[in-house]
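Much of our argument rests on the idea that a fold can be written as discrete symbols. This step matters because it turns folding into a mapping between discrete strings. The record that follows shows the chain in one-letter code together with its fold in token form.
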Amino acid sequence: MKATMRAARLRAAKPPTPSAVSPTGPLEQLVAAFGVDTVLLATVDAQGRLKGKEYYARTMVEQLRSGALSTEMCGYVLGTDLAMTPASSGPFSWASGFGDIGLLPDTKRARLLPWLPGTALLLAEPVGGGWSHPLGPGTVLNEQLHRLAGLGMVPAVGIETEFVLYEGTPRDAAAAGWRGLRPVVWDNRDYALNQPPVAREFGRRLREVLAGADLPVEAVKGEGGAGQIEVTFPYGEALAACEQHVLFKHAAKTIADDAGLTASFMAAPSTGVGSGLHLHVSLADFDARTVLAADPADGTELSELGEQAVAGLLTVLPEVAPLWAPYVNSYKRLGNHSFAPARLAWGRDNRTCAVRVVGHGPSLRLEVRLPGADANPMLALAAVLAGIRHGIEAGLKPPPAISGDAYEHPDAPLVPQSLAEALHAFETSELAGDLLGELVVAHLARVARMDLDHHAARVTDAELERGLTQA
């Protein structure tokens, strides 16, 4: 009965009203055309979440017009952990006094948010001293894009991500002590076209609101885990693809909560279930000609530069793992025969590998399968582009491609096995500092260590189950 009621609530949700006016554009235009009464001024934090303030729309428009709008917020939003715990050291910490950072909004790039009635979003770039703040996730990504452009190359990016949809709201889950969670689908519905009503209606509602925000998805499908859903996005410009993913997560969680559900983007929300964030990356020169394919017309083989890019990924990604696997839980997804990589290998159309070469000719691309759904897409992509750039600049050669089961290939190194292992490699890596900058490495290492420290002293259910009577 409850599942039927949830499906009915999703069906009853008002779809976006069609309009001749684009849902993106100057803020003043959106306020007038769509009756917007609330504006979210937001930036993206280290975890890939929207953080900011709500404003009354017409007051904000007037203040922007007069130059009277204050666009500052506490700088700690760039340096906390998942639970918004203040750091004890670093530029956003008790030691720093928690000063403000400035936000630079682009008022020409406002966007309607159909999943929040009467609401528009104004994304803002963190700034400090008149420049883009070096620790803002968008700045970290833009630095890698700038350096790739220095080599005469521009990436295009497509993202596909997975998450699990549960019955009950996050408040319900918290009240139950996070136990007894029930996925909305109880079995493996991978590629199934007979999803139960609540999952089917959730997918429809999600597609509707994202299309209404000019953020269309390519496809929504059932995945292998109980209640697991995969969403694929169209190919596009790198930063825009990451911003779309941030907004998609905000939409998915909002729609789920409104319907009495919970959308979880944990990498491993339960034992044996893993949700990934796969990054599809291609490279072109300034004339939009692919540079990854040996035969740009229709080939499936990598060019020399393409092989260098693969080699760079296999070399760099294990040394910068906190950018694509930032939490203790992230590493519980990376297991044998899990469809998540367990070894640092590459292959042609091989889903057992960390790097999968797929497509042909102009569509030839590298699918990086290491990041989990919990990763900040801006930071994960920055790590990927840094690896590609290093491989090209150093002229690296990859190991032989694997055509069989990479999980059983002993010559391929294992992926990092824990956040502690990954964090040690990250903090001691000269390569990470050279590619990302020592300031960025120190900052992201501090954020990762907060998650590690949080878990270190906690007694888990698994420990009790294993040791309460047997130890």
Observations:
- The two ends are 44 Å apart (CA to CA).
